Automatic annotation (TrEMBL):
This is Choline/carnitine acyltransferase domain-containing protein. Belongs to the carnitine/choline acetyltransferase family. Residues 3-120 form the Choline/carnitine acyltransferase domain. Gene3D superfamilies: Chloramphenicol acetyltransferase-like domain. PANTHER family: CARNITINE O-ACYLTRANSFERASE, CHOLINE_CARNITINE ACYLTRANSFERASE DOMAIN-CONTAINING PROTEIN. It holds the Pfam family Carn_acyltransf. GO terms for molecular function: acyltransferase activity. It comes from Linnemannia exigua.
Amino acid sequence: TIEKQRLLQKAIQTHLEYMMAASAGKGVDRHLLGLRSMMQTPEEQKSAHIFQDPSYIQSMYFRLSSSNMSPGDNFWGGFGPVVPEGYGINYAIGKEGIKFSISSLRTCKETDSKAFRETILGALRDMKKTLA
């Protein structure tokens, strides 16, 4: 349990560092989205080769799309996956708990929202035991 606590603390710290770097302008995805959104004509879009590069396309392929949709206790809603074999998850953190809205395409045999929900619940229960 002590090792799990140490690893959880390390994961939290790493996440905070990434979050702070992104908010300080050190992330690139929002900048690239801004540039892409500024292109208005098909000619401009065609000439921007970076957005046709396979590595860019792969970096924008999110099998897991999630977002905090607080205000916790008073929010209900959701959004869908952004790729065919992905999940869309929003969550709202309230005073008494966390709400999740998990979605995936029924036509995709690789995804199962109910099974993913059970995986998340299992992870949360494990974290509760680790932190108790």
